[in-house]
Amino acid sequence: GAVVSQHPSWVICKSGTSVKIECRSLDFQATTMFWYRQFPKQSLMLMATSNEGSKATYEQGVEKDKFLINHASLTLSTLTVTSAHPEDSSFYICSAPNRDRGSYEQYFGPGTRLTVT
Amino acid sequence: SQQGEEDPQALSIQEGENATMNCSYKTSINNLQWYRQNSGRGLVHLILIRSNEREKHSGRLRVTLDTSKKSSSLLITASRAADTASYFCATVKTGAQKLVFGQGTRLTINP
Q1: What sign does the dihedral B42-A44-A1-B73 (CA atoms) show?
Q2: Residues A78 and A21: beta-carbon distance below 8 Å
Q3: pLDDT at B9 over 60
Q4: Looking at the partner chain, which of B33, B42, B99 has a beta carbon nearest the beta carbon of A110?
Q5: Do B43 and A93 make contact, defined as CB atoms within 8 angstroms?
Q6: How many CA atoms lie within 13 A of A100 on its CB side?
Q7: Are B30 and B92 in contact (CB under 8 A)?
Q8: To the nearest whole angstrom, how far is the Cα of A110 from the nearest Cα of chain B?
Q9: Is residue B43 within 8 angstroms of chain A, CB to CB?
Q10: Cis status of the peptide bond prior to A8, with omega within 30 of 0
């Protein structure tokens, strides 16, 4: 149990366009989800905390107008990269804690590789 | 921002040997977790150790936590080629939910 999916798994887009990435908890409800970015051979950097029914909380240095987060239901959070540029090319990963299990353990999606040309 | 340092950054050993990775952190924590990431994939949770625990085992994994030194270690015994991956420690600060990741250790097990 406790599966998190992401869609798409990879996307290539042109500079200046917007890309939406979905993160779904498949078998549990997630009032909170987290979005990370990971550059090659580096660690995960937390971008923002997505809260169901309220505004996301962004980490310092992350532009909220560029990385739009919508957590419209208990099983879905979306990250939209607006006006993408080549420097936004990265691996984007979401995670969600399964509160039903009363644990701090988080379940990660498989990631979305974004390439901006 | 990343809280922790991990060492070594890269480790290459022969199959069957033990692998030890270390993690240090800076603030008070509720718990510390270890995750594995295969290349280009998401993360898989390995083990969680709470701040009031000193050692925990899970199969071939052994994790220790020293809160006085703000450090943890992950030991993988009898390593296998399939253990080749990047390993990250992540901390949860007291009163918080989010994970703060260390820089990771790239482990290579040579057959």
Answers
A1: positive
A2: yes
A3: yes
A4: B42
A5: yes
A6: 10
A7: yes
A8: 4
A9: yes
A10: yes
Angstrom distance (rounded) from CA A65 to CA A58: 10
Q: Is A102 on the interface with B (CB under 8 A)?
A: no
Whether B1 has a pLDDT exceeding 50, the answer reads: no
Tens digits of residue pLDDT in B94-104: 777 889 999 99
Dihedral pair phi/psi, residue B39, rounded to 5°: -50, 125
The whole-number average pLDDT for the span B48-53 is: 94
Measured in degrees and rounded to the nearest 5, phi and psi for residue B89 equal -95, 155
Q: For the segment A37-85, what is each residue's pLDDT rounded down to a tens digit?
A: 999 989 999 999 999 988 999 999 999 999 999 998 999 999 999 999 9
Contacts of A103 in chain B (CB under 8 A): 48
| Chain B: residue whose CA lies nearest to A97 | B97
- Tell me phi and psi for residue B18, to 5 degrees: -95, 145
Secondary structure (DSSP) of chain B: ----EEE-SEEEEETTS-EEEEEE--S-EEEEEEEEE-TTS-EEEEEEEETT-SEEEETTEEEEEETTTTEEEEEE-S--GGG-EEEEEEEEETT---EEE---EEEEEE-
d(CA B56, CA A90): 34
Mean pLDDT of chain B: 92
B96 contacts chain A (CB < 8 A): no
Give the number of beta-carbon pairs within 8 Å between A and B. 60
B88 to chain A, any CB pair closer than 8 A? The answer is yes
**Chain A partners of B42 at a C-beta cutoff of 8 Å?**
4, 6, 93, 108-111
